[in-house]
């Protein structure tokens, strides 16, 4: 019995130790191998302190150990089943939680292919020759540990894929494209793209709106695209050569001096004295109309090129060009008129171009000349005169008498020597177009050569046209074989009409010139396309707003049980009437002039005329005389033709008269502006002026029966001022309130019809459509006159 009790006690002890070792195994999987080995070995070992027994006792002990091992295996199997069940349940819970997360992400539109879905952690079975069998505790736990490790690595890789952003994809965008086309290129839905653009700050986006490449590139970058830059090899334009580093080794060139100043301050007369020719006599109205360029050999053997820029405000842009191509500015200021607005503008242009200045105080021979006042005014506007400690020479001169002209020449030569102007006479020609005109020999242009030597046969590009030079003429009209740096000349042979201010560059051959012109034309078309796209977008936006208004009006009418179409039509009619009432009247003009600089100036000046009611609109402009197409174009558009400094063929004058087209011919710009003002003034609504012609006081009211229960009220009146007449406009005042405004339908003296009654007489008056007279009312007769308005 003692042995049985002892064996039972030790058996329970072994079971407890086995369970304890199993718990340690679960909490520390890495100790699995050593713990499992110790537990199995201990099951067959005798407990310490137990005495040795015989063979029978050993057999009984072994039997007890086998029974204990069987019981232990049965308990471990049950534990594993429970653990498998628990792990399976936990796995299902994780799967259900992951599925719920996926549904929530899909519902929120944030589903990602990188969403982490936990794998099923249920225990796996091991395949054997006899089929599928459950793995041992050791193998099962090792497999679980391996799976956990692999899952952790996969999750880390997935996180890395999410964090690492792919590099931007290059995308080539055209210059202009619609929203729909951009969506197709970005492979996104148009609705999503519009939503994204609204988030970026774009407003009123329609699918057909046109985007430029800059805006499209910014949007593409939001979708991880990189707009590709233009290929530099595609730039086919022609550019001037860089400035040489060593100018001292180059030969000297004539300085280019520009004469600037206020209108009629004597610039042309001053130049006339310098070159000893009567230029001023050929200028209409004594005002220079376009840039004149000529070279003047001075007494010291030096040659100076002079540019005579117009002083009139209309030629502001031409004067700016003169300052940009010049070396020295001679600012002419009249001693009797001092500094004027265009004088201040000339000072600003010279300073902006960083061109040194000499002041010529002209007309010192006139009465009222005040040289000191001129110097003070110039100093007040930032001109540092030498007398006041500056470096700008101020020389009193007279273009008429020649006083001080020698000093002016010396000052110009001295300053040019200090500046030491040099240029390379070799290499490709560079220069500027000073003026362009169409002559009998064809299209011609005056150019100023800046570098190189221009020869007959040279191919030059200017703006969007080119020329193979057929002939070169100096300012006297004499053919010369070539022209060098710092010298002006007139050349012909142009394929198209160049523009004043265009840069002139020599091309190696005609093919290269053609490439450059085509490239520039394509660029100009792109610029024009950009303006057109903006206008199209604006028109579409206005149309979209109009449709929205009409839909809102129709919906409101439908809700109020009204006819939607009638409501929309009424609203459209009211809007059209309002626009016509407050809109600005535009008068079309076609401008033709002798040279491109004059065309430019006339267009600019014409566009400054007008007010909030009427304004001009130049629909066509060009160099040359008025042609049949100009007259037909003006007749179709209901406009007028401006002919500045060009003649009009008598046949075309009769044609214009028959078509109702007015041709405004002038040689002086301020007279032309007056003509344009007269044309615009005709479109202004006249001013209505009311003048009171007589007054009468109502003394009593009579009622006259007209038959069939109809009656007419007659006002018995006394004329207090002026006269009243039948058919005249009349208004009735009751106190300060006007109660009637209409016409006198009947005027009688006693029973006799009269046409007019004067002050002091009594009469009876009846009014058209009204008879609510009261004694004490005041009747006013008035006249309306329409007075013509002018700008």
From TrEMBL:
One of its GO terms (cellular component) is mitochondrion. One of its GO terms (molecular function) is tRNA binding. It is found in: Mitochondrion. Residues 71-91, 114-162 are annotated as: Disordered. CDD domains: IF2_eIF5B (cd01887), IF2_mtIF2_II (cd03702), mtIF2_IVc (cd03692). Residues 150-161 have a biased composition (Basic residues). Residues 252-420 form the Tr-type G domain. Its main location: mitochondrion. Pfam families: EF-G_D2, GTP_EFTU, IF-2, IF2_N. Residues 71-80 have a biased composition (Basic and acidic residues). One of its GO terms (biological process) is mitochondrial translation. It comes from the Eukaryota. Residues 519-562 form a coiled coil. Residues 81-90 have a biased composition (Acidic residues). SUPFAM superfamilies: Initiation factor IF2/eIF5b, domain 3, P-loop containing nucleoside triphosphate hydrolases, Translation proteins. Keywords: Coiled coil, GTP-binding, Initiation factor, Mitochondrion, Nucleotide-binding, Protein biosynthesis, Transit peptide. The keyword GTP-binding applies. One of the essential components for the initiation of protein synthesis. Protects formylmethionyl-tRNA from spontaneous hydrolysis and promotes its binding to the 30S ribosomal subunits. Also involved in the hydrolysis of GTP during the formation of the 70S ribosomal complex. Belongs to the TRAFAC class translation factor GTPase superfamily. Classic translation factor GTPase family. IF-2 subfamily. This is Translation initiation factor IF-2, mitochondrial.
């Amino acid at each position: 019995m003692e042995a049985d009790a002892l064996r039972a006690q030790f058996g329970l002890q072994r079971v407890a130790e086995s369970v304890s070792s199993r718990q340690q195994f679960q909490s520390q999987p890495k100790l699995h191998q050593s713990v499992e080995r110790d537990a199995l070995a201990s099951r067959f070992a005798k407990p310490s302190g137990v005495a040795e027994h015989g063979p029978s006792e050993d057999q009984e002990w072994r039997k007890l150990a086998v029974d204990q091992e069987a019981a232990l295996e049965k308990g471990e199997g049950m534990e594993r089943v429970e653990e498998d069940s628990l792990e399976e349940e936990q796995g299902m819970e994780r799967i259900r939680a992951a599925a719920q997360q996926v549904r929530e992400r899909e519902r929120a539109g944030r589903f990602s292919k990188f969403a982490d879905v936990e794998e099923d952690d249920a225990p796996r079975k091991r395949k054997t020759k006899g089929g599928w069998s459950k793995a041992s505790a050791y193998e099962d736990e090792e497999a679980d540990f391996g799976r956990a490790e692999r899952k952790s690595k996969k999750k880390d890789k997935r996180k890395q894929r999410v964090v690492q952003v792919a590099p931007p994809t290059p995308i080539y965008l055209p210059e202009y494209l619609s929203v729909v086309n951009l969506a197709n290129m970005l492979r996104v839905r148009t609705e999503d793209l519009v939503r994204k653009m609204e988030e970026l700050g774009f407003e009123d986006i329609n699918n057909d709106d046109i985007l430029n490449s800059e805006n499209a590139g910014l949007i593409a970058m939001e979708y991880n695209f990189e707009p590709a830059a233009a290929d530099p090899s595609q730039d086919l334009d022609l550019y001037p050569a860089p400035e040489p580093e060593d100018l001292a080794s180059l030969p000297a060139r004539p300085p280019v001096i520009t004469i600037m100043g206020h209108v009629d301050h004597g610039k042309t007369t001053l130049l006339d004295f310098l070159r000893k020719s009567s230029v001023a006599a050929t200028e209409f109205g004594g005002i220079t109309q376009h840039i004149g360029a000529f070279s003047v050999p001075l007494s010291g053997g030096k040659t100076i090129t002079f540019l005579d820029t117009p002083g009139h405000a209309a030629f502001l842009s031409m004067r700016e060009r003169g300052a940009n191509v010049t070396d020295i500015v001679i600012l002419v200021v009249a001693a009797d008129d001092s500094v004027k607005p265009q004088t201040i503008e000339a000072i600003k242009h010279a300073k902006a171009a960083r061109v040194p200045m000499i002041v010529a105080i002209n007309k010192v021979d006139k009465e009222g000349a005040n040289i000191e006042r001129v110097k003070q005014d110039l100093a007040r506007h930032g001109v540092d005169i030498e007398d006041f400690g500056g470096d700008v020479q101020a020389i009193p001169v007279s273009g008429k008498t020649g006083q001080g002209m020698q000093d002016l020449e010396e000052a110009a030569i001295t300053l040019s020597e200090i500046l030491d102007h040099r240029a390379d006479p070799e290499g490709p020609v560079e220069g500027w177009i000073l003026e362009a005109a169409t002559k009998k020999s064809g299209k011609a242009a005056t150019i100023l050569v800046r570098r190189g030597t221009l020869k007959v046969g040279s191919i030059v590009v200017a703006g969007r046209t080119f020329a193979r030079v057929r002939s070169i003429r100096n300012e006297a009209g004499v053919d010369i074989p070539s022209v060098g740096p710092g010298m002006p000349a007139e050349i012909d042979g142009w394929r198209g009409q160049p523009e004043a201010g265009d840069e002139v560059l020599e091309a190696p051959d005609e093919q290269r010139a053609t490439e450059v012109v085509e490239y520039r034309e394509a660029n100009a078309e792109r610029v024009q396309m950009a303006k057109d796209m903006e206008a199209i977008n604006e028109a579409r936006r206005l149309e979209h707003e109009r449709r929205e208004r009409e839909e809102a009006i129709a919906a409101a009418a439908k809700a109020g049980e009204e006819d939607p179409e009638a409501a929309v039509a009424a609203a459209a009619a009211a809007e059209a009437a309002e626009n016509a009432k407050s809109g600005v009247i535009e008068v079309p003009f076609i401008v033709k002039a002798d040279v491109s600089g004059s065309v430019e100036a006339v267009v600019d000046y014409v566009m400054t005329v007008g007010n909030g009611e009427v304004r001009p609109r130049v629909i066509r402009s060009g160099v040359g005389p008025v042609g049949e197409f100009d007259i037909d174009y003006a007749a179709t558009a209901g406009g007028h033709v401006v002919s500045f400094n060009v003649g009009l063929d008598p046949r075309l004058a009769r044609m214009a008269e028959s078509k109702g087209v007015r041709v405004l011919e002038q040689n002086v710009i301020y007279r032309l502006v007056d003509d344009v003002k007269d044309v615009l003034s005709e479109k202004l609504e006249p001013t209505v002026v009311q003048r009171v012609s007589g007054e009468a006081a109502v003394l009593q009211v009579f009622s006259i029966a007209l038959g069939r229960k109809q009656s007419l009220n007659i006002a018995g009146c006394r004329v207090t001022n002026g006269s009243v007449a039948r058919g005249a406009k009349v208004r009735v005042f009751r106190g300060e309130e006007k109660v009637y405004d209409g016409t006198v339908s009947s005027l009688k003296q006693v029973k006799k019809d009269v046409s007019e009654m004067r002050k002091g007489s009594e009469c009876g008056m009846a009014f058209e459509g009204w008879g609510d007279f009261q004694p004490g009312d005041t009747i006013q007769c008035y006249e309306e006159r329409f007075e013509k308005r002018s700008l």
